[in-house]
Amino acid sequence: MTFDPAEIRELEASRLWSLVEPDLELAQRLHADEYELITPTGTRLSKELYLGLIGSGRLVYRVFEPASGIDVRGGGGWALLRYRARIALEEGDHLADFECWHLDSYEVIDGRWQAVWSQATKTSSV
């Protein structure tokens, strides 16, 4: 599969949309089985736990969107994305609205690009 930064940016936009909507069928396809998220609080979430929280309504994204351009590097079946993101979410009684640096890694698995790791580092509250 060829490396096309524009395609990877579109894929990331679809992934974010699938989390906000939520469209868990699409989210399942876009996240590798071994996907892990490191949250801004330093918590590590597996794909199963992360998408389970979203599916149960215990984690609700009101906004999850790039607040900057998405820089992409890669080739040979891997890609790294880095951008500032705005995230507004509800987790139980906790409401948060902040910006963070977001770093995602994608790999070609089973013939398609899938997110493998994500890490968010909070920079400021909105």
Shape: globular
Please give the number of β-strands: 7
| CA distance, first residue to last residue | 39 Å
| Element pattern in H and E | HHEEHEEEEE
SSE-based structural type: alpha+beta
Q: Which strand-content bin applies to the residues?
A: over 45%
Which second-level CATH architecture applies? Roll
Fraction of residues in helix: 25-40%
Write down the CATH topology. Answer: Nuclear Transport Factor 2, Chain: A
- Give the helix tally: 3
Estimate the mean pLDDT confidence: 96
Low-confidence stretches: none
Largest sheet: 7 strands, mixed
Instruction: Kindly provide the name of the CATH class.
Output: Alpha Beta
Radius of gyration: 14 Å
User: How many independent structural domains?
Assistant: 1
Notes on the structure:
The protein is an alpha+beta fold and 126 residues long. It has a single domain, classed as Nuclear Transport Factor 2, Chain: A (Roll). It has 3 helices and 7 strands, in the order ααββαβββββ. The protein has helices at residues 5-20, 24-30, 47-56; strands at residues 31-38, 44-46, 59-66, 71-75, 78-91, 94-109, 112-125. Strands 1, 2, 3, 4, 5, 6 and 7 form a 7-stranded mixed β-sheet that branches. A hairpin with a 5-residue loop joins strand 1 (31-38) and strand 2 (44-46). Helix 1 (5-20) packs antiparallel against helix 2 (24-30). The chain is globular, with a radius of gyration of 14 Å. It starts with a helix and ends with a strand. The relative contact order is 0.21. The mean pLDDT is 96.
